[in-house]
């Protein structure tokens, strides 16, 4: 279990996180952590589109037991 720390955040940010957390099936804390990870990665990689960063990070959180291997087009299995 990860350590936790209480912080104060703006009520508007909390409400937006609450809305997005419901849509994305995350906790409110998880949503804010995701936004922080996206922001950090965007600052570290200014040449990458934010949507690419967000989708890449979200894919890392998906369960691997249901993943399907990538097969390039035109390649017959």
Q: How would you describe the overall organization of this protein?
A:
With 77 residues, the protein is an all-alpha fold. It has three helices and no strands. α1 packs across α2. The protein is extended.
Give a brief rundown of this model.
The chain has 77 residues and is an all-alpha fold.
Give the SSE map.
Blueprint (H helix, E strand, L loop, with lengths): L10 H14 L3 H17 L5 H11 L17
Helix pairs in contact: 1-2, 2-3
From the structure above, extract its key features.
single chain; 77 residues; mainly alpha; 3 helices; 55% helix; 0% strand; extended
Question: In terms of per-residue confidence, which ranges show pLDDT below 50 for 5 or more consecutive residues?
Answer: none
Kindly, what is the distance between the CA atoms of the first and last residues, rounded to a whole number of angstroms? 41 Å
Tell me, briefly, the overall form: extended
List SSEs in N-to-C order: HHH
Alpha carbon gyration radius: 16 Å
Could you tell me the strand content as a percent range? under 5%
So what's the oligomer here?
single chain
> Biggest sheet, in brief?
none
Please, how many helices? Answer: 3
- Which whole number gives the mean pLDDT? 90
- Helix fraction, binned, reads 40-55%
Q: Got a strand count?
A: 0
SS class? mainly alpha
């Amino acid at each position: 279990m990860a350590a936790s720390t209480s912080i104060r955040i703006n009520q508007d940010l909390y409400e937006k996180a609450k809305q997005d957390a419901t849509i994305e099936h995350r906790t409110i804390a998880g949503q804010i952590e995701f936004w922080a990870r996206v922001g950090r990665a965007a600052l570290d990689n200014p040449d990458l589109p934010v949507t690419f960063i967000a989708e890449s990070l979200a894919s890392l959180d998906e369960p691997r037991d249901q993943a399907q291997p990538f097969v390039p087009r035109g390649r017959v299995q």
